[in-house]
Amino acid sequence: MSNQSFGRGGGRGRGRGQGGNRWNSNPVFSRLGAPNDQGGSANGGRGGGFQQSNSNVPFGGASMVGPSDGPVQVSIKGCRGKPEASLRKFLDTKVGRPVNLSNINFRGEIMYVSVPSMDIAQELLKLSGIRFYGEKLTFQIKTHPVKFGAGAPGRDGAGASDSVTVRDRLVALLQTRVDPQGSSLDLSALSQDSIIQSLGADPLQDSKLFEAILVLATQLYTDIVTVNLANNGMSSLRPVANLGMHFPHLRNLSLMNNRISDLRELNCLSAAGSKVPLGELSELILQGNPASDAELRLPNGGASYVEKVQQRFPTISMLDMNPVTPRAQPVSAAGTSTSASTVPRELPFPVAQTFAEDQAINELAVGFLEGFFGLYDGNRGGLADIYDAAAVFSLMVDTTHPTSEFARTNSDSQKRVDFTAYIRISRNLTRVKSQHKRIHALVVGRAAVIQAIAQLPATRHPLQDSQRFSFDAWRADVDGCAQQGMAVVAVHGEFTEVQTGSLISFDRVFALAPALPGSPAAAIGSPCVITNDQLTLRRYNGFHSWLPSSELAAPAPVLNLTPEQQEMARALQEQTGMNPEWTLKCLESYGWNYQQAMTEFPQVRGTLPAEAFQ
Fold first, then answer.
1. pLDDT at 8 over 60
2. pTM for this model (two decimals)
């Protein structure tokens, strides 16, 4: 994912010190019932409102300590908004035994709790002045306990005390799940959170509780642009249908590892089913849901998956951590969306097929690549002489479907490719999370590298057609390296699997060092040895992206055409064989809908005059 990452934020965030009265009038919180603690509700099992203490109650009484048996109420100042689970653990550790806090209530900045005995209460009293989350804690034993719930004098209606209790816990929840910048909200695996467990409800099953979380997050954090809802077991997105209303500028959303089995669930977040859709969404993660897994298993390799998602969210540029071409720009301040084809894009330099630092490095790269791929296709065992004794090889397979206009219509791109032989040693870091597997997937040493590449399917690289390859080459002196004068060669191209006939695109990066006199490489006339070899494989995506503009049979530029439209015209002309004039006529007749033009072309081809192809 570019932009905000989906990680749990730290820090206490904002929102401490809010007065209780501000929240009592909030209908979302006042609708919530009492939390269902394992050790009894926050109000001793009774529903009831929040009641301010009676200032006329005297301190009198024969003893300031009170009876030593039974529960004792203790007030704690300085812990407002801190994680309750952390406070419990902290106090248990400092006292040296379980404190067993119960009947937790707040009044302003003061937390009121019950402990099982006076002995424990006095142990807490000794801790006054200790710091927790940077704040000094102050403990007091309440000889005249402050009353909460139905028995409290002067109560003004049921539900207020319960709402404040829920509110304070949710504040603590958010402060552990919003990053320090206040822009990323992590709501992943909510049911496993100790604060949520203390409320006795699953927010994604209890719509009122989840709505309370969103309302509170909106009020405390106004800059949220990233929300993570991964690992929540959601089969429906109805509980989160109001995301667009609460976070109108949301750009990144993770729904990873849930139970969404139908992509139509996305409708409630998009213009297809929401009055306030996610109009600025640029990144979406659906990986790990039955719906996305099923789409990727289809014969078209996921092309329909991208299509279906972009129908709902045309502004996304990242899907499942892979780049896709957005169909539209995010909604503007005026509430309008701009088509991507109307936004001119210009590269700062003309497209060039290759780059070499100088003529010498160019000659080295050309000679090396011709020799390497000749042996790779014909005699991989012969490559042993040009790999360094400590060479490192790694392979990465990208199984996602390319999203270019070319790939959407090219039969080789649409063809299903069996990557099984490669995946067994693939080191795709977006999928391989285990550090052990990442290390184990590296192939180290000349003999191990030759053995690994010998087991890969036989290939045929079209070396006779230079336009199907692009490379960059440059010097890279490495300080402290025993072999100075190293070079890096990065090549992009394609090959055909001999047995299956599958056409596959690849990127390969070589780190080359000079061949030492007397070495096996020098003995066969190679000027260099390979110290690192990194191979990336993907579905076929053509070679036209790196061809210089002058080599593409493009229609003459038209003043009113954007670069996107010119690119569309080039692609259509190449696919259909029509001349520039008729290519433009075709696109204009279909309203510059490239997909429709390609779909309809076979039906209308027979009606076109011969001059359309001259």
1. no
2. 0.41
